[in-house]
Design a protein that fits this description.
Mean pLDDT: 76
Distance between the termini: 110 Å
CATH architecture of one domain: 2-Layer Sandwich
Radius of gyration: 66 Å
Strand content: 15-25%
Largest sheet: 6 strands, antiparallel
CATH topology of one domain: Heat Shock Protein 90
CATH superfamily of one domain: Histidine kinase-like ATPase, C-terminal domain
């Protein structure tokens, strides 16, 4: 709806409302006035009629007369009806009823009832009806006229409103167009004035407003432009200030009038050590203190400035950094004038470096006359001053040097790039030092050690350079002498190692002969006295051999020739073998040797089995040697998935704290002194520690003098597989150990607890702590002469099984009196067999007692067919070995070196060849290689190596050369005969097995199958076949390119993968190539590479054949 229409409708509505109210009020007033008048007229008429009534006729009840009067009165048009009544009824009344008369509308008449009283007597009543119908008609006419007039007035008002609205809106539209024009064109637009314009004043005011608005807008634009300019300047200043704060090398702190820090830069944060978020809580007095600690109380900044600064603009004060010692700083303060409270900016310069530089200058001044040559130059590198030593060294006087540059003494040996790097270091770090060559005045070139430092002034700019140097010609000569001495020492060490290796062979060979001959002598039917003398000779020889071995091992470690190898081996078996080997020594001393093996160990570990065995033997030997009562416990426990712990605990003499400090030093013994009770070299523990260090392990010692010792070794070893599972705990009876040895009881209690089979223990004279109601199993430790009747002692116990512990080779007690017999030292396997026995039967059935394996001598009828070639350069060793062989009726031929062996092998076929390694003309390794490559009748004959060399990696090199087995000197008679028995078979099956054993180690393959499965083994080996068939040609190519390092890497990979599957011959050859590549031994590489391709093919074919036979056998068995 338009504004104009709204105005018109508004005016019309107002006019109509006013007229309606006015007309309605007027009509109502007239109506009430007429009615009042009518009522008055009716009252007057009523009184006139009352006066006109004939009272006498009324009293006489003259109806006729009264009726006539009524008829006369009714003629009056205003009277509607008349009724006269007395007490008895109506006497007279008008003829027409009021209800039928034209004036009978009660709404348009007035009824009056009046009594007729004469002389106080009520004669009757008068009922009178007065009609005002004519008045109502007149009122209706008036009302109709008023309505007509109202409509006319409304129409006129509407017309007037339309005209007035049009006029007003036309003026307002004019203003509206003006506003739209201003909106479109902007403030300042002026509306045109008209002299007859009704809104002239409004227009003038409007124009003034537009003008002022335009001026205001102009001012705002100017103000905004100025504000933008000031903001740009402020931002620029802020960036400049921040750049100054960031680039400043001084600490800058802004604080307010109460000393609270408002802002600081990064240098201040670094200098005082407080984080940026802590600055709001700090005061300047927390950071700076004056001459005394009392000044820390100056929290009022005004007082602070007065106390610390006074009138000075700059002053040295002490800064108190966080968690650091106080620093001397230069403190400057400047007030900042602001509209609010005053602010201050402090500039703090750390004087530490400046004082150091000043001290250096002072020191340089004091040391200017030292024996070192000193040069001081300016920033242009012009010499300003030199000291006396400069003249003495170079020959140039101070007058000749001053004003020149140091190029005066330059030798020209250093390049320009060298000097650029030197000066770059000086500019960046402030100093440089090193060795250079310079030239003296006489032209002599001399080496010098020079140090150059940049000296800075109060600012950060360099002002001087100071160089001091010394002639090190004599030092260089000494260094050269030391180098020559070191080379000579290295040559001497190598010579010593070669000497030791040679002497090892030369000393141990005759000693081996002595020991072996002595063993033969002891078995030749000597008298008791002769047996005792032979036994003493054996003990002395063995002790001498042990000392020689210790010295050679130590020399090998000291010379750095001891190398740690890695191969998969069963650590638990090695430990039990060592214990079984040395247990006899303990038994001879009356002590126990007990093993404690965790069932959670891996079935095999990757490491150097030989060196770990050596560690075990040394520690166990030591423990047995220093223990006279009780015994030794050897523990093997897992420390983590890839780490094991070996513990050797004894109940021996113990080690004092003072001796523990040097117990691992060479040639140190617990009882060192002139009167030593225990023999030995004092190298055993030293060798153990060095070997442990080489393997990346740790060794610790816990001991108290008189209370025994505990050596603990932790070694990082990668393991795989697991030992045999534990027997089910619910099937175990009561277990009881009866022994008088507390250490044996302790060790076995630990072992059974690890196997989840708790065991109780007591001495032989105590009653076993067992329940009579339960089945029991007693382990009875019987020692000669301690128990006469082992069965009778626990006879009161029902359902008791007796298991006697006895040392190896001891049969004191009859087997038939016991339920079982266990040999000490107990192995983990024997304990598992014990716990897995069928205990529901009356007697416990145990596996048969393991007897010592002995090979019966072969009859001469059979041995007449066994031909052995002995290759040995030592006549003594020849005699020893020939004596051992003839004792078993073998046929023996001798060769003095490898060359003679090749000749003998080309003429006759042998069943077995015994080959020494170190021989003149041709050693055993080369002879074996040529024999394997040749076409003699003995190309596939088993070859057994024999050596006493302490420094060769014997077993691996022997296998790599093509040998089948290995014996170390001095020869152990039992091991010697066992080895011969293993290789002496001459049937076709035996030859095939021997050849297979030459290439494969079947146990490794079977163990791998047990850890995985026979179904998975072909797939795993298939990967190895593909990898090897790709690697061998690559190694041949690298060999032709003489890329020795890469060849060694490939050989290492081939060695590792072949060893994982027990392909030992190929593994050994790969290892020999790897070692030779590292050492640069081209000859050995050439020899090893000649047969590498053929050996790899044969090895893979042998593995496939074995796998086929094994799979076919498994299938047949399964069928």
């Amino acid at each position: 709806m338009s504004f104009r229409l709204k105005i018109v409708l508004g005016i019309i509505l107002i006019e109509v409302l006013l007229m309606v109210v006015f007309n309605y009020t007027t009509i109502q007033f007239l109506s009430h006035s007429n009615r009042d008048h009518l009522e008055h007229e009716a009252t007057v008429t009523n009184q006139h009629i009352l006066d006109a009534i004939d009272k006498e006729a009324l009293q006489l009840r003259d109806s006729h007369k009264l009726q006539q009067m009524v008829n006369q009165l009714i003629q009056n048009s205003d009277i509607a009806y008349i009724r006269i009544s007395d007490m008895e009824g109506v006497l007279a009344e008008s003829e027409e009823e009021f209800s039928t008369n034209q004036h009978s509308d009660k709404d348009q008449s007035i009824e009056i009832h009046s009594p007729i009283i004469v002389s106080g007597i009520n004669l009757g009543s008068l009922e009178l009806g007065i009609s005002f119908h004519y008045m109502s008609e007149m009122a209706h006419q008036v009302q109709n006229r008023w309505i007509t007039m109202t409509l006319i007035q409304t129409a006129l008002a509407a017309l007037f409103a339309l005209l007035l609205g049009s006029y007003l809106t036309r003026q307002l539209q004019y203003l509206q167009r003006a506003v739209e024009t201003i909106t479109e064109k902007g403030a300042g637009h002026q509306i045109e004035l008209h002299s007859d314009h009704d809104l002239r004043k409004v227009t003038i005011a409007f124009n003034q407003m537009s003008k002022r608005l335009a001026e205001s807008h102009q001012q705002n634009r100017l103000s905004l432009k100025e504000q933008k300019r000031l903001t740009s300047i402020a931002r620029k200043n802020e960036k400049i200030n921040r750049a100054i704060l960031s680039a400043s090398q001084d600490a800058i702190i802004t604080f307010n009038s109460d000393g609270s820090v408002e802002e600081w830069n990064h240098v201040a944060e670094t200098l005082f050590g407080w984080p940026s978020e802590a600055q709001q809580s700090l005061k300047i007095s927390d950071l700076i203190m004056g001459d005394s600690e009392a000044n820390e109380e100056c929290h009022d900044i005004v007082k602070f400035i007065q106390v610390h600064m006074g009138e000075a603009q700059h002053r040295e004060l002490l800064a108190t950094p966080r968690n650091r010692a106080p620093l001397t700083v230069e403190f400057s303060i400047s007030p900042i004038q602001t509209d609010s409270s005053p602010m201050y900016t402090a500039f703090i310069h750390d004087l530490t470096e400046q004082r150091i530089r000043n001290a250096e200058l002072e020191l340089a001044a004091h040391t200017f006359d030292s024996n070192e040559a000193i040069i001081i130059t300016d920033t242009d590198n012009r010499i300003l001053k030199v000291n006396r030593a400069f003249t003495e060294i170079t020959g140039y006087s101070a007058e000749e040097a001053i004003g020149e540059t140091p190029r005066l003494i330059s030798s020209g040996r250093q390049s320009a790039e060298f000097y650029r790097e030197m000066w770059s270091t000086i500019h960046q770090q402030g100093s440089w030092s090193g060795e250079i060559y310079n030239r003296k005045k006489n032209g002599e070139i001399f080496p010098e050690y020079i140090s150059i430092s940049a000296v800075k002034g109060n600012g950060t700019e360099v002002t001087h350079y100071i160089a001091h140097f010394m002639d090190i010609s004599e030092q260089k000569q000494i260094e050269e002498s030391l180098k020559m001495a070191r080379l000579e020492a290295e040559h001497a060490s190598e010579s010593k190692s070669r000497f030791l290796a040679t002497m090892s062979h030369e000393i141990r060979s005759p000693l081996n002969a002595i020991l072996t001959m002595n063993e033969i002598l002891k078995s030749s039917g000597l008298t008791p006295e002769q047996q005792e003398l032979a036994h003493i000779a054996s003990e002395g020889g063995n002790t001498l051999m042990m000392l020689i071995n210790d010295i050679l091992d130590f020399s090998k470690i000291e010379s750095g020739q001891m190398k740690i190898e890695e191969e998969w081996f069963n650590l638990a078996e090695h430990l039990e073998d060592v214990v079984e080997l040395l247990a006899t020594q303990g038994h001879n001393k009356g002590i126990e040797v007990v093993t404690v093996l965790s069932p959670h160990l891996h079935s095999r570990y990757l490491g150097d089995a030989v060196r770990i065995r050596q560690i075990l033997i040394n520690l166990l030997n030591n423990a047995i040697k220093f223990t006279d009562q009780g015994g030794v416990i050897l523990r093997l426990l897992p420390d983590s998935p890839q780490r094991i712990v070996i513990e050797v605990e004894d109940s021996g003499i113990g080690i004092s704290e003072s001796q523990q400090q040097q117990i691992f030093s060479e040639f140190i013994q617990v009882d060192s002194g002139d009167n030593r009770q225990y023999m030995g070299s004092g190298l055993g523990l030293t060798i153990v520690q060095r070997l442990v260090d080489l393997m990346g392990g740790e060794i610790t010692l816990q001991s108290h003098e008189g209370d025994g010792s505990l050596f603990r070794i932790s070694l990082p070893l990668q393991g795989e597989g697991s030992l045999s599972p534990l027997p089910p705990a619910q099937q175990l009876p009561q277990l009881c150990l009866i022994s008088d040895n507390p250490l044996l009881r302790k060790g076995l209690e630990e072992q059974f607890a690890l196997l989840q089979a708790p065991i109780v223990s007591c001495s032989l004279r105590e009653e076993p702590p067992l329940s009579k109601a339960e089945q029991s199993l007693i382990l009875l430790d019987t020692i000669d002469n301690l128990v006469d009747d082992p069965v009778s002692m626990p006879s009161k116990w029902q359902r008791v099984a007796l298991i006697t512990l006895q040392q190896q080779h001891s049969d004191t007690l009859p087997r038939e009196q016991l339920d079982g017999l266990l040999r000490k030292p107990l192995s983990l396997g024997s304990i598992n067999n014990l716990l897995s026995g069928n205990i529901d039967q009356p007697n416990l059935h145990l596996p048969p007692v393991s007897e010592t394996i002995t090979h019966q001598p072969i009859t001469s009828e059979k041995n007449g067919q066994i031909e052995i070639l002995l290759v040995e350069d030592s006549p003594a060793n020849q005699a020893v070995v020939m004596a051992l062989l003839k004792k078993r009726n073998y046929s023996v031929s001798c060769a003095n070196n490898g060359q003679e062996a090749l000749k003998a092998a080309s003429k006759q076929s042998y069943n077995l060849i015994l080959m020494d390694l170190a021989m003149p003309i041709m050693d055993g390794l080369e002879a074996t290689r040529q024999l394997r490559r040749g076409h003699s009748p003995n190309q596939s004959t088993p070859i057994i190596a024999m050596t006493a060399n302490a420094f060769a990696d014997d077993r691996e090199r022997c296998l790599a050369a093509g040998m089948n087995d290995y014996l170390s000197k001095p020869l152990n008679t039992q091991q010697f005969y066992s080895c011969l028995q293993q290789w002496q078979e001459s049937t076709t099956e035996a030859e095939r097995t021997a050849q297979s054993s030459e290439l494969l180690e079947i146990e490794v393959m079977e163990r791998l199958a047990a850890d995985t499965s026979w179904n998975a083994l072909p797939r795993i080996l298939g990967i190895y076949f593909v990898e090897t068939e790709e690697r061998i040609p690559k190694m041949v190519e690298l060999y032709q390119q003489q890329a020795w390092q890469a060849l060694g890497d490939e050989a290492h990979a081939l060695k590792s993968s072949s060893g994982s599957f027990g392909i030992v011959r190929l593994q050994a050859v790969a290892r020999e190539i790897e070692l030779s590549a590292k050492e640069g031994n081209i000859t050995i590489i050439e020899q090893a590479m000649e047969g590498l391709v053929l050996l790899a093919e044969h090895s893979i074919e042998e593995v496939k054949q074995y796998l086929k036979e094994r799979t076919d056998g498994t299938t047949t068995t399964g069928a």
